[in-house]
Write the structure tokens for this entry.
Amino acid sequence: MLDWLPENVSIFGEGVDHLFSIIYYISIAIFLIVNVIYITFIIRYRRKRKGEKAHYYHGNNLLEFSWTALPFVLFLFLAFYSDGIWEDIKYSSKTPNADVVVEVMGQTYMWHFRYPGSDGLFGRRDQKFISSTNPFGIDPDDPNGKDDYTTINSMMIPVNKTVLVRLSSMDVIHSFFLPNMRVKQDAVPGQWVDVWFNSRKTGEYEIACAELCGSGHYLMRATLDVTSQEEYDTWIDEQYTNVLASLDTAPAETNE
Amino acid sequence: MEAAISSEQHGHAASHGHHESFIRHYIFSTDHKMIAKQFMVTAIIFLFIGGAFALFIRWQLAYPGQPIPVIGQFLPSTWVNDAGAVTAEWYTQLLTMHGSIMIFAVVIPLLVGTFGNFAIPLMIGADDMAFPFLNMVSFWLFPLAGMLMMAGFLVEGGSAAAGWTSYPPLSAVASTGQTLWIVALFFIGFSSILGAVNYITTVLNMRAPGMKLFDMPMTVWAVFITAIIIIIGTPVLASALSMLFMDNFLNTSFFLPENLIVPARDMTRTAGGGQPLLWQHLFWFYSHPAVYIMILPGMGVVSDVLSTFSRKPLYGYKAMVFAIVAIAFLGIIVWGHHMFQSGMNPLLGTTFMVSTMVIAVPSAIKTFNWLGTMWRGKMEFTAPMLNAVAFVSMFVIGGLSGIFMASTPVDVFIHDTYFIVGHIHYVLFGGSLFAIFAGLHYWFPKMSGRMYNERLAKWHFWITFVSFNGTFFPMHILGIGGMMRRIYDPTIYDFLKPFQPMNEFITINAMILGFAQLLLVINFGYSWFRGQKAKRNPWRANTLEWQAPSPPPHGNFDRPLQVYRGPYEYSSPEAVQDYLPQTTSPEELAEQHRHHQKRLEQQQEATVTQD
């Protein structure tokens, strides 16, 4: 069944997949043990004659204790082993320093991506500026925000770089799901959550919404382009030029 | 003493041969057995409705956008498009209602309503519930609620469509269907609480003389503990529902953060201060224990059935009771494992993971004790036994797949995928529903006074068992492949395209599974009136209900009961036969031995003279 997993290209994905296979083999082992015993019993202990008496036995405390203690040790081990990986993925104290920061905003039924622009700084955002034309609520008076640019349903990141995603939603709960990166995180309105990943391989991958967000939920699909650093830089420059051009053509909107 | 008082009240009607009117007897009955049957019939009707929803969902997933065969063109245009295919709007309503109906109107009413009502008074030797009138109200709230929920399909905008978990802000977008859902769930909560109060009081006060708590059958224990969970959890759900209702109508914002923009509603700015995660905490505080509400009574029934048909004492009876108590306790403190990816502090993920992993321990105790019960038994594979055996095996699969979700890093990937759908159906169908089938067949003779058709029951079992696994096992694979649950059309995604043949396979199995359930109805419907007359104790079982006539009259028992021993004295060396009812007194036992001795001597004489 493990072959069915989508290709993993993320760094921490290896750990997750490894854990997955450990639990998988433990489950198979337990399933086989229980069912082999079970089927043996079913075949062996059928009633053949009427009125035949079975073995009169109420139980054994030592056995009872051992099959309480064994699973306890096993599952505690699994819990602590899992927790190591969990901390690496989710604890903010263990998040590596980000090379690229992208803000992601879910809106029924699309994903908005925001990049900080040439200065590398995001413009201040505030809930009160959020509108359908300004999904991130960028403060129009903050100069750092002038060169920020956004994309819809397409995300581009450089390969082998730590990407930090700041995630939120402007309406209902969505879930940011990157199957190939082993990333999934709910995007909750009114709250920002950080997730990180690092792709080892270039290519085009899919981004899905994993939380029911209305009848168009299934259409909420975006693409993730993992490219080389050079291609990424070119793309950024291009975007930046576009933003500058739009700033030039609309000077009336700036109140400087 | 309480038993004596209430027996006076009910004994009155019975002893005078008082004839009840049709309405009093069949509709507004206060007799726990009639109420149990009412729960059963109503829930089975809902089972078919909820099942039909699932088949529409499955059709769409296997053949996206293709017209529903035969009936597609007759469905209203708000449900299907011009061609007769399921629309995305109707699809989300269907999946919401499938979950809601199956959980709240099928599994809980069958396990808690039917078995709790039927088995508790009979198994503890009481003549009725402690509060028969409340019991009646508890039943009538349930079909009312079910119909309210279903009425959503007929109102403008359709039924509730935010999933059975109804996470706000999506569910806070007021629609009539969503409101009906909230009100219906409120009623069902009331129904549960009234039932639970009744069970707890009845179990504590109305046991037959001589019956200690540790002489109670597992079914009674399980429903008793379940009732305690209901009392703890349901008020929390009710308060969450009230808050959601107020968010919808009174412009409060318990669950709505500031400056929310919901395009589907003219809500461009909310006053704010709310937290969507609050709903999830409150909802799962009830709904995680609800998973145990939906399996514990099943475990009880299966314990009784396995012991009876293995002709052996239940292995480790006390450990089984403590395991139920442990599952109930742990079940209440692990709700957060539904929220690992919700944006909750990851530190909480760690704590909830550890507590969740620990639940595997009492579950393992139960599984191994069931195996121990079968060890060196003399098993008879009747329909109840087959279903109980299937329960154990399916519950093991459901439990093991649960470990994947309990482990937080793995849950990152499989959360909200079909793996979860596979898991929950192994627990709720493979677990609960097989236990329900076991119990329904087991008590059918006592309920109806007639035997079901064994051959038909076995056909039903085998078809159900095979198609069940064909339906739900591949869902794990879909989940591992990353297929999101609740999506209308998986072919939109490139990485899901290879799974289309599997989706078709599942749908075919689901159709077989659905139609196989008609066998159950045919069998029960026919046997109820035409079946062979049942004896008092057709399974040669120990527990008290088999001491009552089949079917028991209003007031249940026709002779006074005295309990001498635990419920699982099968194959006891003390007894002549392979069972020893709880009510058999030491004197009767001695008499049986004398009788047996005499018969043996006579036989010996006969053989001697023959020689």
Observations:
- The beta strands of chain A are 100-107, 110-115, 149-152, 154-158, 162-169, 174-178, 183-187, 193-198, 203-209, 222-227.
- The two ends of chain A are 61 Å apart (CA to CA).
- The mean pLDDT of chain A is 88.
- The CA atoms of residues 158 and 227 of chain A lie 5 Å apart.
